[in-house]
Specification:
Length: 727
């Protein structure tokens, strides 16, 4: 009980500390936020740019006169002209990549302390500059804000994250701690019944059991807190993908310590009181194994409203209606998920008992009949074995839905991702190196026609330098393309600001100040580009061999194309940052902050899944071992009656697999419907996560196989005399 409680409390402390880590990060980023004011001595200009897949923040300060100036946390004074103070992570980047020196003009004179950084991986710099070089400078006011600035996770997304972690970790954790509090329940019930029969009062009998349970749980809670503190010190130095924190951020607060050190013993006391109630009130039936009461069926009714709500949203989607938006779904869907999860927990025992009774009445197999009758008599013990894994599969479905929804809002829905880099920011060597970045499928240069820059509305044309093969690989459809000819891309579905007609002529600026003129051809390519693509309708497709030399780089961009999965996008952005760190990179349709936030959420949900898996597996192993120990007397009786080892093993495996099959089947169906209802009400393009269903099925089959194999060693045919009972 103590070691089981220690594992549970360590997981509980980890989950409860995640908001603390995020809050500590947000508090520091808020305290350094710069605001304009009426300071006549200092002006500033703030920049937010991507460096690879990470946001890079730089604040330039220009001194316009003598006098005092406010100082942000983490540094002793504002840098003078030609000086820079950077974060330790940015200092490592500058030292490892000399090309990145252009990001921080001036001499690095120091590093920012932890008080001025969100985390150890923060890319931040304070740079002193000449005020004349800051075209949009504003007078400096103060540092720090009343509201949260530059939060690590958006508040609305944080609520979803808390709810998901609660379903994935906290619900199985309560079950696991309850299981630990009921270890050796049958043996303890017999001991308590013996105390009751020799004259101990019912109240004192319950106190004895409560003392044992609370003492073991409290010792386990202390061990769990110590174990978590050690794990936090280690993980803070290693970090997670997209999330690094200081060790002090992850140390539990007073409320967390109170919940862990008092909540776990309190739960053990409640469970112990419930488990010892029968031994205190009816000791004779406990000592002589009286008939057990059938499980209550009221818990099954929780499935009705839960499945009714999430199933209703799924039906509306199949009927072609869009139930997204509104405040009702924001309350109904989480409530339905909780009701469904509770229904799986409380409804598994009566459903399993009913199914076991039916199977036992119809089977002709002795091992199957023995297993079914035992399950029918005591379905609660089977429930303790499998419920942690059932809730894990149910929570995994919700986690997939959250990731799918966040993935939709952080990037385009197209299978390809484009990145636009100004040609004026690249030298010829960098252009070649960008094409070799891992993950880049193709690249194409694009130019805009000459602009007088006087505010007049002059018709424009766009050209893209690419072959037909590049066009086909970068669009949804492209028919009629002929290599070696200038052609116009046309998509009849699209609307565009300018509609170049055949025969019209458009000038394009050259490096020497002259202009090259392109005539719009009559030949067209029927193209269907992905949204927000450089290969848009109306663009002129120019073969590389027909491109005139010397087009002005200031009017051109280099477009790179890769797959759109988040891992590839981050890899390509990091590759671009390594080749051209000072270039202005525009990932089409992506906000770098959203991409970084998605990486943080994936890491936190991954931690939640790992904790849920640890809890579910631990609950299963503990329950199976405990049940095998508790049933030694029954196994001894069967051995004396002549049962073979194979029969006993089949009975053991079937007793575990029946509730597991029922529970996992219900968790798969209910979890997938809950995930679909969440996606439907979220308003995204994906309503049915068919891609994630095979993964859940594979996990469920793996759980069944592991459970069957783990149950086999728990059967022993060795008979100890103390296990032979008269009754």
């Amino acid at each position: 009980m103590a070691f089981g409680s220690a594992l549970g409390v360590a997981c509980l402390a980890a989950v409860l500390t995640i908001p603390t880590i995020l809050a500590a990060h947000d508090a520091r980023t808020t305290s350094r936020a710069v605001y304009p004011g009426d300071n006549k001595n200092i002006v500033y200009q703030e920049y937010l740019d991507p460096y690879g897949s990470q946001p890079l923040r730089r604040v330039f300060f220009g001194r316009t006169g003598p006098g005092p100036a406010p100082v942000p946390p983490g540094i002793a004074r504002l840098p003078r002209t030609g000086e820079a103070v950077v974060s330790p992570k940015l200092a490592e980047v500058l030292a490892a990549n000399p090309r990145a020196a252009g990001l921080v003009p001036g001499r690095v004179t120091g590093t920012i302390a932890s008080a001025g950084l969100g985390g150890p991986d923060d890319l931040y710099a304070y740079i002193g500059a000449d005020p004349a070089t800051l075209p949009e400078a504003r007078a400096l006011g103060h540092f720090g804000a009343d509201g949260v600035r530059d939060e690590l996770v958006d508040p609305s997304t944080l609520d979803i994250l808390r709810f998901t972690l609660g379903c994935v970790v906290l619900l199985p954790l309560v079950i696991f701690l309850s299981v630990c509090a009921r270890l050796s329940g049958e043996s303890r019930a017999r001991r308590l019944a013996a105390l009751r029969l020799v004259g101990l009062s019912a109240k004192d009998t319950l106190r004895v059991n409560a003392g044992e349970s609370v003492a073991a749980a409290f010792v386990g809670a202390v061990i769990g807190i110590v174990g978590y503190l050690g794990a936090n010190e280690l993980m803070a130095r290693i970090g997670l993908p997209g999330l690094h924190w200081y060790p002090a951020d992850g140390r539990p607060e007073v409320t967390t310590l109170v919940v862990c050190l008092l909540g776990c013993p309190a739960l053990a006391w409640v469970v112990g009181q419930y488990g010892a109630r029968r031994a205190a009130s009816s000791p004779i039936s406990v000592r002589r194994t009286g008939e057990r009461r059938a499980p209550r069926k009221l818990g099954t009714l929780l499935l009705v409203p839960g499945l009714g709500i999430i199933g209703g949203y799924c039906v509306l989607s199949l009927m072609g209606r869009d139930p997204s938006g509104g405040s009702a779904s924001a309350v109904l869907v989480p409530g339905a998920v909780l009701l469904t999860g509770a229904g799986l927990v409380f409804g598994l025992a009566p459903i399993t008992a009913w199914l076991a009774r039916r199977v036992a009445g119809a089977t002709k197999s002795l091992p199957l009949a023995l297993a079914m009758r035992r399950t029918e008599v005591d379905p609660g013990s089977s429930l303790r074995v499998v419920i942690g894994l059932v809730l894990l599969v149910f929570g995994a479905s919700l986690t997939q839905g959250v990731l799918v929804e966040l993935d939709q809002v952080s990037r385009q829905t197209a299978p390809l991702q484009e990145y636009s880099v100004g040609l004026s920011d690249l030298d010829p060597a960098q252009r070649q190196d960008l094409g070799k970045v891992p993950g880049v499928r193709t690249q194409a240069a694009a130019y805009d026609s000459w602009d007088p820059l006087d505010g007049s509305d002059v018709p424009h044309a766009h050209i893209v330098v690419a072959t037909c093969a590049q066009l086909t690989a970068s669009t949804e459809r492209a028919t009629g393309c002929v290599d070696g000819k200038i052609m116009q891309l046309r998509d009849d579905r699209s609307t565009f600001a300018y509609d170049p007609k055949a025969g019209e002529r458009y000038p394009f600026a050259l490096k020497d100040g002259r202009k090259a003129v392109f005539t719009v051809p009559s030949e067209r390519v029927d193209v269907r580009p992905w949204d927000l693509s450089v290969f848009s309708s109306g663009t002129l497709l120019i073969p590389p061999a027909l491109l005139p030399p010397g087009l002005a780089d200031s009017a051109g961009t280099l477009t790179l194309v890769s797959d759109a999965d988040p891992a590839t996008v981050r890899s390509v952005l990091d590759g671009i940052g390594a080749v051209a760190p000072t270039a202005d990179v525009q990932p089409v349709g992506i906000v770098i902050d959203s991409l970084a936030q998605l990486a943080v959420i994936r890491s936190l949900l991954g931690v939640g899944m790992v904790l849920g898996l640890v809890i579910g597996v631990a609950a299963f192993v503990v329950s199976v071992a405990d049940r095998a120990m508790e049933r030694r007397g029954q196994v001894a009786a069967l051995v004396l009656l002549g049962a073979r080892a194979g029969t006993l093993r089949v009975v053991q495996v079937v007793q575990v697999l029946l509730p597991l099959v029922v529970g996992l089947g219900g968790a798969l169906v209910a979890g997938w419907l809950a995930e679909s209802s969440y996606l439907i009400t979220g308003g995204g393009a994906v309503h049915w996560d068919w891609d994630g269903l095979p993964l859940l099925l594979g996990c469920a089959l793996g759980v069944l196989l592991a459970a069957a194999l783990a149950s086999l060693p728990m059967v022993r045919r060795h008979v100890d005399p103390e296990h032979i009972r008269r009754d």
